[in-house]
Amino acid sequence: MKTLPDPAPTPGLHRALNKKRLLTAGAVVCLVVWLAFATALVLGIDGTLRLVMLTVALLLTEGLVWLSAAVLGITAFQMRRKILHKLMRGGRPDVR
């Protein structure tokens, strides 16, 4: 019995899955760090340690934003900026 050859892998699909996994992993790490910070707040951990945890959480969140911009393409963020600008000025072209 003859078997059919495996279809050729789609390179674009593989890249898209890797990007999605990268963003998902970054979001999970960010969420875990923020949950650790919230736990430190609830438990009443020392102020210095909380400050360090907060700094790490903020830097990771900033990194996730830039990673998203790199993976999704900067055009997605430019479109978001255009939409927000249009909403803030009420759609009027004369208002800056």
At a glance:
The protein has helices spanning 11-43, 47-72, 74-88. The protein has 96 residues and is mainly α.
Describe this structure in words.
Helices cover 77% and strands 0% of the residues. It has 96 residues and is mainly alpha-helical. The protein has a domain of 64 residues. α1 runs antiparallel to α2 and α2 crosses α3. The relative contact order is 0.09.
Shape: flat
Q: Classify the helix fraction into a percent range.
A: over 70%
- β-strand percent reads under 5%
**Helix and strand element order:** HHH
Q: Give the distance, in angstroms, between the N- and C-terminal Cα atoms.
A: 71 Å
**What's the count of strands?**
0
Q: What is the overall number of helices?
A: 3
Q: Which segments are poorly predicted (pLDDT under 50) over 5 or more consecutive residues?
A: none
Largest sheet, described in full?
Answer: none
Mean pLDDT across the residues is 81
Task: Name the structural class.
Answer: mainly alpha
Gyration radius over CA: 21 Å
How are the SSEs ordered, and which strands pair?
Elements (H helix, E strand, L loop, with lengths): L10 H33 L3 H26 L1 H15 L8
What distinguishing features does this structure have?
96 residues; mainly alpha; flat
